[in-house]
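Issue 218. Parser rejects a valid record. Input:
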Amino acid sequence: TFLRPDEPIGEVIRIQGSGEYTETVPVLDAKGHMMPTEVNRTMGVDIAMQWGNGYESTQSSFVNIIATPKGGTHVQGFEKALTKSINDQLRATKTLKNNEADVIKDDVQEGLTSVITVRMSEPQFEGQTKEVLGTAAATKIVAAVVAEEMEKFFNTTKRIEKATGKLILEKVANASRTRISARAHKELQRRKNALESSSLPTKLSDC
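Output the parser choked on:
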């Protein structure tokens, strides 16, 4: 709520869950040698998000208490699963017509404020600055939690959540339509300019 730059659409959506993964780590054996050993680990996922009526996307992500301003595998999992969940719901509720293309990440993220946190043992970071999470398992675990919880959210029987879900789907569908029509307009202008600057005789027009 503090990070959101615009007026809210519905309440904050909270997603929580966990998943397990295995990792190969070097462990000291009895003789003092480092041996690769498979270790089972658990990862906790905690996400808060809220759509607003604006166009800006505000995203913060953390691993334990370390901020990851450049994202990483946990953010990839979140974005992928959220876009798929929204597309599935848009088709299921017929908010998008059959002849309309699927929405993309940018449409879903328009006006979305989100905080993505994973809690795990020994996270692997890319680079020295620890700004990007590199643990591959995070993508799958975060995606699974988001997919499951978003399905519950959209199929809820609570009237307020149902109304919020409908508003979110309409906002995303409209963002997609606006993007597509803006691109079509831009292409039309580009073609028009190309024709005007070409050396075609004036009696020939674009067919």
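Fixed in the parser; the record now loads. The longest strand covers residues 8-28.
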